[in-house]
């Protein structure tokens, strides 16, 4: 009987390990890992931006993912140890700084609304996929409050060959999706034009000689 009990406990422990202890909550830090470094934009050094971010998630606002068992049933939460809404703001700030923009008060206002920041595990026959999405909208207003530009950005990230529906794999998925969404905003030429249009009139125009 004792041996049978030990075997049962060992089997239960193995199941728990393979399922990433689906009943226990995972907590992981989420980071911004840029896909690439953007080039500096001529004239951006004369533009000051202030960024704010608001949480507009209507589903799963309390987590970045949910563990699943082998049958695809949702189990325990996977939560971020840091504020992912503020992470989106700081990630965009980093992108804009790399492009040459200054961050501070008194210039153009960039309002961010985070609408999705979530990884969904898809269970397969042998392994699964961590399929993540990070979506946010962005509005640019000049110092007078006039709306200059608005756009929606949706980034996706996938991690294949997932064996465990764990916080580590959810973290990898959302970090890929975040990098993709930030890259979309950074590559948006119309957004760049809107931001550059807020240059003070006294600022020199790139490529033009003074006095010409």
* CATH architecture classification: 3-Layer(aba) Sandwich
Rg from Cα? 22 Å
Unreliable stretches: 7-20
Give me the number of helical elements. Answer: 4
CATH topology term: Rossmann fold
Biggest sheet: strands side by side, in what order? 5-2-6-7-8
Overall pLDDT confidence: 88
Largest sheet: 5 strands, mixed
Strand content: 25-35%
The CATH superfamily turns out to be ABC-type transport auxiliary lipoprotein component
Order of helices and strands: HEEEEHEEEEHH
Briefly, what CATH class?
Alpha Beta
Oligomer category: single chain
Helix fraction bin: 25-40%
Number of domains: 1
Count of beta strands: 8
Q: Which structural category do the helix and sheet elements fall into?
A: alpha/beta
Concise summary:
Helices cover 29% and strands 33% of the residues. By secondary structure, it is α/β, with parallel strands linked by helices.
Would you mind describing this structure in some detail?
With 212 residues, the protein is an alpha/beta fold. The protein has a single domain, classed as ABC-type transport auxiliary lipoprotein component (Rossmann fold), CATH 3.40.50. Helices cover 29% and strands 33% of the residues. Helix 2 packs parallel to helix 3. The longest helix is centred in the last third of the chain and has 20 residues. The relative contact order is 0.20.
Question: How would the blueprint of this fold be written?
Answer:
Blueprint: H1 2-18, E1 26-28, E2 48-55, E3 65-68, E4 74-80, H2 84-99, E5 102-103, E6 108-122, E7 128-141, E8 147-162, H3 167-186, H4 189-196
Parallel strand pairs: 1-4, 2-5, 2-6
Antiparallel strand pairs: 3-4, 6-7, 7-8
Helix pairs in contact: 2-3
């Amino acid at each position: 009987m004792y041996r049978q009990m030990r075997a049962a406990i060992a089997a239960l422990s193995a199941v728990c390990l393979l399922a990433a202890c689906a009943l226990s909550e995972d907590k992981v830090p989420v980071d911004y890992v840029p896909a690439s470094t953007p080039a500096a934009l001529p004239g951006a050094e004369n533009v000051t931006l202030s960024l704010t971010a608001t949480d507009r998630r209507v589903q799963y606002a309390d987590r970045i993912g949910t563990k699943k068992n082998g049958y695809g049933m949702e189990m325990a939460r996977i939560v971020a140890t840091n504020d992912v809404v503020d992470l989106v703001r700081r990630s965009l700030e980093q992108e804009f700084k790399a492009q040459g923009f200054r961050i501070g008060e008194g210039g153009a206002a960039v309002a961010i609304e985070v609408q999705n920041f979530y990884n969904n595990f898809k269970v397969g026959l042998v392994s699964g996929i961590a399929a993540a999405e990070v979506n946010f909208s962005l509005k640019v207003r000049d110092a007078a409050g006039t709306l200059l530009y608005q756009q929606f950005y949706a980034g996706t990230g996938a991690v294949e060959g997932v064996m465990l529906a764990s916080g580590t794999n959810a973290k990898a998925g959302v970090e890929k999706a975040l990098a993709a969404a930030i890259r979309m905003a950074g590559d948006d030429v119309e957004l760049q034009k809107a931001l550059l249009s807020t240059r003070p009139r006294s600022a020199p125009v790139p490529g033009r000689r003074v006095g010409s």
